[in-house]
Amino acid sequence: MIIVLLGYMGSGKSSVGRILAEKLNYNLIDLDDFIEEKEGISVSEIFKTKGEVYFRKKETEYLKDLLKLEENTILSLGGGTPCYANNMDAILNAENATSIYLKGSLPFLSQKLFKKKAKRPLIAHVESEELMTEFIGKHLFERSQFYSKAEIHIVTDYKEKIEIVEDIILALF
């Protein structure tokens, strides 16, 4: 089985994915890390030197390859992955994949990401929590139609990572 974790930046896809993979004894693949390994440069460098169109094309190509894996795998996506090139449909149509939306509310994500913005190039420029809420709100509005197609929805607000992992396991098995 491939468990596909999707959701907005800061929802816990990578950190929850690590714990979940350990608990279930599954392989863990972070799609952005996988792309960096295959392309030999960082995602931000790909955006800078080759552009977003190139990145999204490669992202879709690698996603489709990974959805064919036969090993038990946790696949953590980038926040935008489900929203491009019919990627969400590819995930939903993959025979051995289950999609899980790690759903954070706008206030929760804004508060969390504003504190950690220095580590996130996409939001490093945002100067106040109010502007962060506006920025994330716009993204969530655009992306929620894709995220909401996931088979399982797990609310992440103010939960410890292990609680989220337990919620996922209960929903799956």
UniProtKB/TrEMBL annotation:
The keyword Mitochondrion does not apply. Pfam families: SKI (PF01202). Its EC number is 2.7.1.71. It comes from the Bacteria. Substrate binds at D32, R56, G79, R143. Its cofactor is Mg(2+). It is an enzyme of class 2 (transferase). Gene3D superfamilies: P-loop containing nucleotide triphosphate hydrolases. Keywords: Amino-acid biosynthesis, Aromatic amino acid biosynthesis, ATP-binding, Cytoplasm, Kinase, Magnesium, Metal-binding, Nucleotide-binding, Transferase. Binds 1 Mg(2+) ion per subunit. It is found in: Cytoplasm. Mg(2+) binds at S14. ATP binds at G10, S11, G12, K13, S14, S15, R120. SUPFAM superfamilies: P-loop containing nucleoside triphosphate hydrolases. Its main location: cytoplasm. Belongs to the shikimate kinase family. Catalyzes the specific phosphorylation of the 3-hydroxyl group of shikimic acid using ATP as a cosubstrate. This is Shikimate kinase. The gene is aroK.
